[in-house]
Amino acid sequence: MADQRHANPMRLRRTVDAYLVARERVMCSGYAAEIDWQESRDYSKVTEREFLREAAWVILSAGMSERTIRRVFDAITCAFCNWDSGKVIANNRTRCISRARGAFGHDAKLRAIAEVAERIAHDGFVQVKQQMLDGGPWAFVQFSYIGPVTAFHLAKNLGMDFVKADRHLVRVARAAGFETPGDLCREIATITGDRVGTVDLVIWRFATLDSNYERVFGCETAM
Predict the structure, then answer these.
(1) Spatial CA neighbour of 130 closest among 157, 109, 158
(2) What band does 5 get if pLDDT is binned at 50, 70 and 90?
């Protein structure tokens, strides 16, 4: 399916309609600020503090629910010096991990966060940031607990326009008749004007709110 718009414009129109329904549901459920945040992300403007915070969020989220991480993240933020800088965290590594352990007892993930900080402290934030930009999402895989899928999660959260092909996005793409989540999100973004990362976020959040999300985007509504 190289070009969904020309192959089946009616199907695409129905898929976009389903997306707009999903977007409205997400906004009405109290997540409008989340959409605005994703729309505003710009990798060129990402600060060291933001980089550390988002990397920590993705590392902690590996294999765990968003709700669980959201519940402990403030405490972990405090433990890791409010993400002040890689150098500050690296210089206080043992204390940061020890304090964070009280809120989240997964030492390997806490050490992985510290390792990101140490990399920034050693190489400099400007250089690390450029290396990630040059390498794209795949460059993030070098960090512990960031894999081939979550690398795209981090890239998206930092403002790169990529799609994280998690299980919800894969299911929606399949239900709507697209080969990949990237194809799905790019086509919707082209028509709606939303960023690709925003389309990803809306569909993912909608899937967490409505157990029938596949049916909403399915062939019976997208044909």
Answers:
(1) 158
(2) very low
